[in-house]
Amino acid sequence: MNQPVTELDTALRTRDLSVWYGDTQAVKHISLEIPRNRVVAFIGPSGCGKSTLLRCFNRMNDLIPAARVGGEVNFRGQNLYDDDVDPVEVRRRIGMVFQKPNPFPKSIYENVAFGLRINGFKGDLSEQVERSLRAAAIWDEVKDRLQDSALGLSGGQQQRLCIARALAVEPEILLMDEPASALDPIATSRIEDLIEDLKNEYTIVIVTHNMQQAARVSDYTAFLYIGELIEYGDTERLFTNPSEERTEQYITGRFG
Amino acid sequence: MSLQDERFEPRLARRRRNGKIFQAVCLSSIAFSIAMLIILLFDVAKDGAAWFSFDFITSFPSRIPDRAGVKPAILGSLWVMMLVAAISFPFGVGAAIYLEEYAPKGRVRRLIQTNIANLAGVPSIVYGILGLAIFVRFFGFGRSILAGAATLALLVLPVVIIAAQEAIRAVPSSLREAAYGVGATRWQVVRHHVLPVAMPGILTGMILSLSRAIGETAPVILVGALAFVAFTPTGPMDLFTVLPIQIFNWTARPQAEFHGLAAAGIIVLLIVLLMMNATAILLRNYYQSRRGG
Amino acid sequence: MSHKVFIERLGQLEARLLEMSSTVEGLVRSAMDFALDGEGTAQDVIERDRIIDAEEVAIEEEAIELLALHQPMASDLRLLVTILKINSDLERVGDHAVNIAEAGERLRSTPQRPVIPPEVAEMNTIALGMLRDSLDALVHRNIEEAEDVRRRDDRVDRLHESVFRIMLTHMLDANISACLQVILIGRNLERIADLATNISEDIVFMVKGITVRHGGRAGVENGNGDG
């Protein structure tokens, strides 16, 4: 099924991963590898399970009582779903940015500092806040109003703040669930540029319903359909000459 | 502009007329309610204004109308209210947090939920009986402010819990997800994010509860508030009286002057109520402004 | 642009390309008829080529519009890119036809015309056949047909060399300039065959998604993983 070349370091690997919501199986026995310092995109029609799959990586599905997970997610040599793994610990190392920007109703500074405080950051708080805001390409816009409420920022700025918040706790992997779908094209473009910069230091997995975005931004793309992994490979090749018929039909717009 | 169309019969004139009728009905119901309220207030003010004075507030009750006052009743009410707030807030908010954030959403939780809703409708005198048995006798608080406050706290607890639950439920899940996402534990999510955002709603629930509690008479009588006090309370274990009892007491007297005193007492009660509400509203606005920036 | 409209317009564009190819074919035939047998005029060929040039521009503009408004992917993208390339190749075939007509004009105006070797006629037949078959391969989306066209290019190259050698010997006893015109005609036919070969290679790319130009062959994987 065209896995990416494994000469690259693997940041995260799933093995026979499945998710059930009650009786419905949303993710069906998916095995794939996320290579380090690359951008992997999950595409597919609505309801294909791409967000559900993403949320397995940082155990966010734990928050849904009816959700049940089978199979393994291996990170740093350990299965994240083992009994002795604390999801709180996982979420510091695997961060997440959500579809609709959701900054805390606090000041800009506090938004970034919160994660640092609760995780017992040992360095200089303000310095780390600044570093994170710079990494998210928003420092210049907010440096003079760090104490202002985050809710006063525009949608695109709020989303970059959420990225800064996620980066502050120094995760290895950044999960992005349709990060630009609530934003206008210019804000979207800035987020995409940011992703390009971030992949030097982080591994990024992005769920998107916008194929052109996946084509622009990712190194590898996985196409999911009704919970199954149909095809996974080089973005360039998948969009010019996919191996699977269903992939071809989806990306040329013949369905979905 | 004539937009005649053969396939539609909009009957605009009739629909507008119906709308206006409905609006008038709603308006008249609220007008009626407010009018009743104004008449009531006016009546009280008319009867009580003559007796309302600084002396009235600072004097003890007396058999002689000219020297009667509500000082012990005011202080008693204030003491009781403070304790009711102090007791019902932690228990009520704590219960709400447990039910919304920690309890598994199954049959047990629904059972608890139903029972709380039922308790909100139990007549207050039943709480009086309960308070007498448990706080006055069993715990041995005697006929004290503490017993009265505990009883009233029990009475308003269901309202506090339900209001707090609603407020907590109204906090968007996206906020919780954001906090979990940076590696917060459940308690950290609740304490740093859910509670601050829910606080305005919770405080509204508290306002409603205290406003009800301050006017309760029956349970407080049962618990042993006195009808005639010649001293001011100094601690939670003291004997006490509250404004509604004092007012009730005066209305029961045959002399007309005491009715005037009762009306003045009502004015005092309303003012205390207003001040309490104003404080709570200020607190709520403070929390809201902190959030909205 | 909605998907439905895109597919319609893409189909119309392909049809237009095919029509252009048969026009170009006819132009080459007319040019050769004039050069070898004196039928028709060179001027006529030149004017018909102008129409082909205009059509090439129109097809290109339509293709670019489809690219911009629809951002096609995968097979749609490859089809569109192939249409663009074939479009430009066909226009150049038209230009070679003009060259043939002009060489024919110069040939007919010299008094001592040499005998035109039969190889030239054979080249003409093969080249026209290659052109037609390559466009058939496009319609059928057939790789074998495209490969077959490529193979015939070798024969044309050999014929071209023969014509060259023969005319070289003729130059000793016939008009040098006239002989040169014949060589030119042969060369233009050889270029037409090359362009037909290009077209067939483009079709292999389109169908399989791999590049076979510059020596690669269909069936050899060239950056394409296999599922």
Structure in a nutshell:
The complex is a heterotrimer of chains A (256), B (293) and C (227). Chain B has helices at residues 12-48, 54-58, 71-102, 107-119, 124-138, 145-169, 173-181, 186-214, 218-223, 243-252, 256-292.
* Terminal Cα span of chain C: 32 Å
Broad structural category of chain A: alpha/beta
Q: How many DSSP helices of chain A?
A: 10
Q: Kindly report the spatial arrangement of strands forming the biggest sheet of chain A.
A: 6-7-8-3-9-10
Element order, helices and strands of chain C?
Answer: HHHHHH
Radius of gyration of chain A (Å): 18 Å
Roughly how much helix do the residues of chain C carry, as a percent range?
A: over 70%
Query: What is the overall shape of chain A?
Result: globular
Any idea what the shape of chain C is?
elongated
Number of DSSP-assigned strands of chain C: 0
Q: How many alpha or pi helices of chain C? A: 6
Structural class of chain C: mainly alpha
Radius of gyration of chain C: 19 Å
Tell me the distance between the termini of chain A. 21 Å
Beta-strand segment tally of chain A: 10
Give the mean pLDDT of chain A.
Answer: 92
Greatest contact pair? A-B, 32 and 23 residues
Write the layout of secondary structure elements.
The complex is a heterotrimer of chains A (256), B (293) and C (227).
Chain A: E1 10-21, E2 24-35, E3 39-43, H1 50-56, E4 67-75, E5 78-79, H2 87-93, E6 94-97, H3 108-118, H4 125-135, H5 139-142, H6 155-168, E7 173-177, H7 185-198, E8 203-207, H8 211-217, E9 220-225, E10 228-234, H9 235-240, H10 245-251
Parallel strand pairs in A: 3-8, 3-9, 6-7, 7-8
Antiparallel strand pairs in A: 1-2, 1-4, 4-5, 9-10
Helix pairs in contact in A: 3-4, 3-6, 4-6, 6-7
Chain B: H1 12-48, H2 54-58, H3 71-102, H4 107-119, H5 124-138, H6 145-169, H7 173-181, H8 186-214, H9 218-223, H10 243-252, H11 256-292
Helix pairs in contact in B: 1-11, 3-6, 3-8, 3-10, 5-6, 6-8, 7-8, 8-11, 10-11
Chain C: H1 3-37, H2 42-70, H3 74-108, H4 118-140, H5 143-170, H6 176-208
